[in-house]
Amino acid sequence: MLVSYKWLKQLVDFDGTSQELADKMSTTGIEVEGIEQKSAALSKLVVGEVLSTEKVPDTHLTVCQVNVGDEVNQIVCGAPNIKAGIKVIVALPGARIADNYKIKKGKIRGFESLGMICSLGEIGLSDSVVPKVYADGIYYLPQDAVVGQPVFSYLDLDDEIIELSITPNRADALSMRGVAHEVAAIYDSKVNFQPVALDESDKKASDVIEVAIESDKVATYTARVIENVTIAPSPQWLQNLLMNAGIRPLNNVVDITNYILLYFGQPMHAFDLDKFEDKKIVARQAREGEKLVTLDAEERDLIEEDIVISVADKAVALGGVMGGADTEIDNSSKNIVLEAALFDGKSIRKTSSRLNLRSESSSRFEKGINLATLTEAMDTAAAMIADLAGGQVLSGIVSAGTVDTSDVAVSASLDYVNRSLGTNLDYAQIADIFRRLGMEITGDASQFTVAVPRRRWDIRIPADLVEEIARIYGYNNLPTTLPKEDGTAGELTQTQQIRRQIRSLAEGAGLTEIISYALTTPEKAVAFTPCPTAVTELMWPMTVDRSALRQNMVAGMLETVAYNVARKNKNLALYEVGKVFEQSGNPKEDLPQEINKFALALTGLVAEKDFQTAAVAIDFFHAKGILEAIFDKYNLAVTYQATSEMENLHPGRTAHIMLDGQVIGFVGQVHPQTAKEYGIPETYVAEINLDAIEAALKPAAPFSEISKFPAVSRDIALLLDIHTKHQDVLDAIASAGVKRLTNVTLFDVYTGSNIAPDKKSMAYNLTFQNPSDSLTDEEVAKYMDKIGRSLEQLGAEIR
């Protein structure tokens, strides 16, 4: 919000420089981004009068004789709209203009030029606020401008513009009246809002137009009719005010609606009544497939969630966002309809975001407007149009719908205030604070009630009253106390401990932690998910790419992999510890369940090629090995079950991870087609449920001494069916029930010559140990025989 210091001084009486005001506002809750005075960086700019002009042959240049007060200077000008008899901005030799550019005497095409005739852009105004008629040329000053005088006061360049950073809860300050109320409270002063006298003709507006509301997204819609207006440029003071606020002046009628937007914070729109095909104006929801050409000449495809203003069942404006080109005010307009309404902020936000069409009006509807001044704003705009455009205001406001403009009662207790702020304020002090805020208060030393006007829609609960008291009383006046030490020892929860341990294990294995977005597309939300649930989507997403809560972390990690691979960083080992969101109820009514998970993604090489070793590429077993380290840490007996059900993973290189018969995760290679879509090479991923691991944890095993007696190892080679799994062999060995068996390791798998095509050889190393005695060869032989019989039941042939 850009606030004119000059204008603010007219609205409220206070003594203080702009910098002092900025400091006080920043300490009472509205941050000031900065203060700018455009004339501060300019010098030697005066009003000049063009006496005569002469074209330079074969060029676009014009030699001008310009009266600059004490003398007549010859200045060469390239502007297409230069002519004799106009007042212009002249930069004299030695002047400083925009970007600290210094003007010097010189010759152009052999003609001496003593200065420069400036456009608004050349003295520092943005091209976006320069009136279109002067967009490609110099600016004409008012004819009553005094030749030779500095131009700053004529353009209000000497005004100080205060930029406020308005937070959503203080949208009341998105208007000059709102800022004036705030300044009056800070300085314990009063606002000076001058009433506007409105003269109405005898002709009734209701005889000319009708209005109706056919949408629950429109609380009220009001309109006035002004006839016989004359469209012309706005007076200089209004153009200056708009340009300083960052708005381009267009014509007197449109500029007045923008003035009301700045003054009251009330968005308005003016229609050309003669372009209406019917007298009835209807505020309704758009129809699917309906189209509208807006004022920026873009055709907009509308949906049912959009609010439109229609005449003769044809959309003429996008409610709260932008008007339509078919009913635009132009130089031939004579009769106009002025609208002011209250639209649903959420609906306006959705429409403006979807169409990428943000405007000053839409931003105010989104954050809220002052309901109590809607009619006053309408009357002020009509009176100004009658004054500046010479129109006749028809009698009465035509309206549909109503809004409650009465004050809102909010109560609190004195004890609650002092307990919250640590103060000892009495009722008289609190009453004085709300007097400064322009709010009536009733009550006594124990309980009080504040009548909050509709302009402060952010105050609705007792805590809001406390915040207002703290702001005006002064945060610097609140007592400071040191935190109390209650002797409570802090400790990590089991969930926090597991997350830290997992991070340590992952980083020990060479992985790098990343944090990806919890929001993604609905399609990616359920990808890489063994059992997808209903997707939880945001009602009001910032972008389509971040509209749904994820049910897996792998999809987001692959985006990071793709980003790095595209930048030639191809050897990646990444992990993430985060939350996914599963929905068991109605996604529109019930909150999703948050589940802690660990995920990893591996691609590229484990070891680079050098002169004596070959390159080692990442494979399935690298990913599985990292998971095994985690499961070993918590002594979890997990199993792996091959699966081809997950369409985003390779059907022959993917396994579910099972714990106590339940799927707690997966590990596998990204499907080649999916990898191609992401633009990544062969990549292996895994994801496990940390909540399931936490639930399966058992109490720590009691400490047992390291055995003093040696272990004995034996190798065994088995000839097995080609389809027999490693896990089947482990289960068979375990079923033998040999309690002295402490470890089983697979060290060789062989297929090929000397073995039938449907067979394979698997070799294991078995370790035996008795913690209380040395094992004999006879004992170990018995154990091997017992294990051999168990393996034979599996169909194994001991080689």
UniProtKB/TrEMBL annotation:
<keyword id="KW-0436">Ligase</keyword>
<dbReference type="InterPro" id="IPR005147">
    <property type="entry name" value="tRNA_synthase_B5-dom"/>
</dbReference>
<keyword id="KW-0694">RNA-binding</keyword>
<dbReference type="InterPro" id="IPR045864">
    <property type="entry name" value="aa-tRNA-synth_II/BPL/LPL"/>
</dbReference>
<feature type="binding site">
    <location>
        <position position="458"/>
    </location>
    <ligand>
        <name>Mg(2+)</name>
    </ligand>
</feature>
<feature type="binding site">
    <location>
        <position position="464"/>
    </location>
    <ligand>
        <name>Mg(2+)</name>
    </ligand>
</feature>
<dbReference type="InterPro" id="IPR004532">
    <property type="entry name" value="Phe-tRNA-ligase_IIc_bsu_bact"/>
</dbReference>
<dbReference type="InterPro" id="IPR012340">
    <property type="entry name" value="NA-bd_OB-fold"/>
</dbReference>
<keyword id="KW-0067">ATP-binding</keyword>
<dbReference type="InterPro" id="IPR036690">
    <property type="entry name" value="Fdx_antiC-bd_sf"/>
</dbReference>
<keyword id="KW-0460">Magnesium</keyword>
<dbReference type="InterPro" id="IPR005146">
    <property type="entry name" value="B3/B4_tRNA-bd"/>
</dbReference>
<dbReference type="InterPro" id="IPR033714">
    <property type="entry name" value="tRNA_bind_bactPheRS"/>
</dbReference>
<protein>
    <recommendedName>
        <fullName>Phenylalanine--tRNA ligase beta subunit</fullName>
        <ecNumber>6.1.1.20</ecNumber>
    </recommendedName>
</protein>
<feature type="binding site">
    <location>
        <position position="468"/>
    </location>
    <ligand>
        <name>Mg(2+)</name>
    </ligand>
</feature>
<dbReference type="InterPro" id="IPR020825">
    <property type="entry name" value="Phe-tRNA_synthase-like_B3/B4"/>
</dbReference>
<dbReference type="Pfam" id="PF01588">
    <property type="entry name" value="tRNA_bind"/>
</dbReference>
<dbReference type="Pfam" id="PF03484">
    <property type="entry name" value="B5"/>
</dbReference>
<dbReference type="InterPro" id="IPR009061">
    <property type="entry name" value="DNA-bd_dom_put_sf"/>
</dbReference>
<feature type="binding site">
    <location>
        <position position="467"/>
    </location>
    <ligand>
        <name>Mg(2+)</name>
    </ligand>
</feature>
<dbReference type="GO" id="GO:0004826">
    <property type="term" value="F:phenylalanine-tRNA ligase activity"/>
</dbReference>
<keyword id="KW-0479">Metal-binding</keyword>
<comment type="similarity">
    <text>Belongs to the phenylalanyl-tRNA synthetase beta subunit family. Type 1 subfamily.</text>
</comment>
<keyword id="KW-0030">Aminoacyl-tRNA synthetase</keyword>
<dbReference type="InterPro" id="IPR041616">
    <property type="entry name" value="PheRS_beta_core"/>
</dbReference>
<dbReference type="InterPro" id="IPR045060">
    <property type="entry name" value="Phe-tRNA-ligase_IIc_bsu"/>
</dbReference>
<feature type="domain" description="B5">
    <location>
        <begin position="405"/>
        <end position="480"/>
    </location>
</feature>
<keyword id="KW-0963">Cytoplasm</keyword>
<comment type="subunit">
    <text>Tetramer of two alpha and two beta subunits.</text>
</comment>
<dbReference type="InterPro" id="IPR005121">
    <property type="entry name" value="Fdx_antiC-bd"/>
</dbReference>
<feature type="domain" description="FDX-ACB">
    <location>
        <begin position="707"/>
        <end position="799"/>
    </location>
</feature>
<dbReference type="Pfam" id="PF03483">
    <property type="entry name" value="B3_4"/>
</dbReference>
<dbReference type="Pfam" id="PF03147">
    <property type="entry name" value="FDX-ACB"/>
</dbReference>
<dbReference type="InterPro" id="IPR002547">
    <property type="entry name" value="tRNA-bd_dom"/>
</dbReference>
<dbReference type="Pfam" id="PF17759">
    <property type="entry name" value="tRNA_synthFbeta"/>
</dbReference>
<keyword id="KW-0648">Protein biosynthesis</keyword>
<keyword id="KW-0547">Nucleotide-binding</keyword>
<keyword id="KW-0820">tRNA-binding</keyword>
<feature type="domain" description="TRNA-binding">
    <location>
        <begin position="39"/>
        <end position="152"/>
    </location>
</feature>
